[in-house]
Each structure stands twice: as structure tokens, then as C-alpha cells.
Design goal:
With 414 residues, the protein is α/β, with parallel strands linked by helices. The chain folds into two domains: 258 residues, Rossmann fold (3-Layer(aba) Sandwich); 72 residues, formyl-coa transferase, domain 3 (2-Layer Sandwich). It is built from 15 helices and eleven strands. The strands form three sheets. It has a six-stranded parallel beta sheet, with helices on both faces. A three-stranded antiparallel beta sheet has the order 7-8-9, with helices on one face. Strands 10-11 form a two-stranded antiparallel ribbon. Strand 1, helix 1 and strand 2 form a beta-alpha-beta unit. Helix 7 crosses helix 8. The relative contact order is 0.14. GO terms for molecular function: transferase activity. Pfam families: CoA_transf_3. Keywords: Transferase. This is CoA transferase.
């Protein structure tokens, strides 16, 4: 395990806290790009891991070119969203020199993360069997779209997985077309699964000295994340369909048209429904045989929606949100993303953080605006040490040092 401090430039984290994160000393060779892998490695970097991002010379991570939008320096905001706290090196894996540098980087790393098409790393001589034979303590994480078997040749794009994995079949209005989620949700879920698998494998390695391969794929991650909908099919043979914003098993649990904008109401039990009925001026609804229990309300959801919609249309969403929350009924307006960040700020939750520009970026360097890591650790909180790197920004710092270390082997290493 690497013992060097993983804040190479010596700057303290934006949020303060412990000088070293929970994963300090953990070196990750990150060969991944786009979203699932970079999201996983960014979360680990926030918690203290030293992540070295390996990119193609000249172009780098695909998302560097995914714009607009871009920041004031012309950098893709997509790339910026998942690459903070990392150091970038460029390696041409089509050359023997680049492969030698990659092998040297892996030799001093604890974890390797890659999301090339299955078989690519093996063709490069960087496959898990070869590297684990050389480095038995290595945790090798492979992320794919559809696994390394019969689905290996299928491109792993989030939209495609949402379609073939069933998510689009349950998303959207019942009378409309199947709809994707408004963000690449499958990639994010897969990144979270990769993070969990990596941490479990590192824990095992620290206890036994044995590394292993971690494999996650987009389709499997989505099927797991479909939770109750997937269980309904697996257990009861129910093939769910689209219900718009309604819930298949709970009512009322959807959006309603208030006087000015949509209002979300999430009633989870009979007590909350009675409070809702009283607050909107229809207390008798809680005693109505059509709506007395949740099962009754689900069976008569259309009638209930019509009654509630008429009452809720008499005032704005902010009014109803205020009085319903005061009555113990989960409710809130459908916010824009800007309103969502403002809401988090009012609640005292960290939504956006600014990472100061490194001195090497020049006196006029602007801070990098980043979305806060949602994991709160009391002793070793997430730290924001490095803005997302420029392509190859750390070649001199990392590759020359790696070459020097390769030329002078550490005889004490095991």
C-alpha cells in the first residue's frame, strides 16, 4: 500500500477535518472513462484515495469533448462532474512504452479500475489474470455494460441499458411513450456498486493479503436497482407498466396540479392520509370505504386523484407544502435544479462547494464549482483537494517518479 500523503500539492481540503481521509494511502490506477468508473473513483478520492487517471494522449476521457455546457475555461461540465481529486497522466497504450508505464503504475497501486470493452485489457497484457499473478494483493475492478460473456460485444450506453433493462417500460405517462430518466442513472448506480465492491475487496485484502477481481455491469446493476418492481415480477409474475408519477403499491403517492405548479404528495400510511384529508378540507375521505386503507386507495386511485386535484388547485404548491408538512404529510413542490440547490442550502446541507485553483493554474485561476459528496463522516470527512485535472497535468509528477522507482526496485517490497 502506498504511504505517501495523497494531497500532492500540500493544500488542505475545502471542508477541513482530518488531515488524511479514511482511504489515505490507497492508490488507485484509474483506466476508466465517461461516467460509471469515474464516478466510483471520484467518491473514493473524496474519501482520501490517491487516484491517478490514465487518459489517451491528445483527446483524453471522452467526456472532455461532451459540450456544451462548459465552464469559463471551455472545459466540459460533464467531465468536471466526476473527476475532482484526481491526477491525470496520458499513456499511449498502443505502444510498448505506454504499456510499460502502465505496468509500472499498476505495480505501485492497490486498486485498478477499468471499463474497456471486455477483452481489451487482456489484449493489452493488462488483464486481471496476468496482473493478479504479478501482484497478488491487487484489487482489479472491471465495469462493463452486459458482462464479459455473451453480452461482451454489446456497447454499454446508459440509454440502451435503460431500454433493454426495463427501466423505460415503467417510466413515463401510461398514455405516452416509454421514457428514460433525466440523468444517466444506471451509470451512477453501477458506479456505486463498483465502489462498494472495491471497498469490500480492499477490506478482504487488508485482512488476508489476497487481492481479487471485482466485476459489475450496467444491466445487473439496473435489475438490482429496480427493487420492488423487479421483485413483483420475480415473486408474483407481475409485469409492471407505466403509471406516470403514481406508485404501483401506494396511494396517494404522486404529483398533483396545484394552482401554480405541480405538487408531490407521498402518503405512506393511513395516519398520513387522514392528516392530508383534514388539511385539504375533506376529513370524511379518511372514513370513506373507497379510501379507508391503502389497498382501498390504490384500487380507487383515479377517483381519489380527482377529488384531491380539485382541492389542491385552490392554492399554490408552496402553500400546500407548508401546511401539509406542518400536519405531518410528506409534500413538496416540483423544483427546478436551481430551486433544489437553494432548498438544500436552506436546510443547511452542502450542495455546492468551490475548490480553489491550484497555484500552478496561475493567479487568475477560477475555483472549480463542484457538487458536494453526500457521505458525511464525523472523523474523516470528504475533502476537496484537487480540481478536475487538465489532460496530462501530472505527467511530470507521476510518470518520471514511476520510472525512477522502476529503475531502483524496492527490495523490501513484498
Amino acid at each position: 500500500m502506498s504511504t505517501e500523503d495523497n494531497a500532492p500539492d500540500g493544500r488542505s481540503g475545502v471542508l477541513g477535518g482530518a488531515a488524511r481521509g479514511a482511504l489515505a494511502g490507497l492508490r488507485i490506477a484509474d483506466f476508466s472513462r465517461v461516467l460509471a468508473g469515474p464516478y466510483a473513483t471520484m467518491l473514493l478520492a473524496d474519501l482520501g484515495a490517491d487516484v491517478v487517471k490514465v487518459e489517451r494522449p491528445g483527446t483524453g476521457d471522452d467526456t472532455r469533448a461532451w459540450l456544451p455546457p462548459a465552464d469559463r475555461d471551455g472545459t466540459s461540465t460533464y467531465f468536471l462532474s466526476v473527476n475532482r481529486n484526481k491526477r491525470s497522466v496520458t499513456l499511449d497504450l498502443a505502444t510498448e512504452a505506454g504499456l510499460e508505464q502502465a505496468r509500472a503504475l499498476v505495480a505501485e497501486s492497490d486498486v485498478l479500475v477499468e471499463n474497456f470493452r471486455p477483452g481489451t485489457m487482456e489484449r493489452l497484457g493488462l488483464g486481471h489474470r496476468e496482473l493478479l499473478a504479478r501482484h497478488p494483493g491487487l484489487v482489479y475492478c472491471s465495469i462493463s455494460g452486459f458482462g464479459a460473456g455473451a453480452g461482451a460485444a454489446i456497447p454499454g450506453y446508459d440509454l440502451l441499458v435503460q431500454a433493454v433493462g426495463g427501466l423505460m417500460s415503467v417510466t413515463g405517462d401510461a398514455a405516452g411513450e416509454p421514457t428514460k430518466a433525466g440523468v444517466a442513472l444506471v451509470d451512477v448506480i453501477t458506479g456505486l456498486h463498483a465502489t462498494l465492491g472495491i471497498l469490500a475487496a480492499v477490506r478482504h485484502r487488508d485482512a488476508t493479503g489476497e487481492g481479487q477481481r471485482v466485476e459489475v455491469n450496467l444491466l445487473g446493476s439496473l435489475l438490482s436497482a429496480m427493487v420492488n418492481q423487479a421483485s413483483a415480477f420475480a415473486v408474483a409474475g407481475v409485469v409492471p407498466g407505466r403509471l406516470g408519477n403514481a406508485h404501483p403499491s401506494i396511494a396517494p403517492y404522486e404529483t398533483f396540479p396545484a394552482a401554480d405548479r405541480p405538487l408531490a404528495i407521498a402518503v405512506g400510511n393511513d395516519r398520513q392520509f387522514a392528516a392530508l384529508a383534514g388539511t385539504v378540507g375533506e376529513p370524511a375521505l379518511a372514513l370513506d370505504d373507497r379510501f379507508r386503507t391503502n389497498a382501498d386507495r390504490v384500487a380507487h386511485r383515479t377517483e381519489l386523484r380527482d377529488i384531491l386535484s380539485e382541492r389542491l388547485a385552490t392554492a399554490g404548491a408552496d402553500h400546500w407544502s407548508s401546511v401539509l408538512l406542518a400536519a405531518g404529510v410528506p409534500a413538496g413542490p416540483v423544483n427546478t435544479l436551481g430551486e433544489a440547490f437553494d432548498f438544500a442550502r436552506k436546510l443547511g446541507l452542502p450542495g455546492i462547494v468551490d475548490i480553489p485553483a491550484a497555484p500552478a493554474d496561475g493567479a487568475e485561476g477560477t475555483p472549480s464549482r463542484q457538487i458536494a459528496n453526500p457521505i458525511a463522516l464525523s472523523g474523516t470527512p470528504a475533502r476537496y483537494r484537487l480540481a478536475p485535472p487538465r489532460l496530462g497535468q501530472h505527467n511530470e509528477e507521476i510518470l518520471h517518479r514511476t520510472a525512477d522507482e522502476a529503475a531502483t526496485p524496492d527490495e523490501s517490497a513484498t
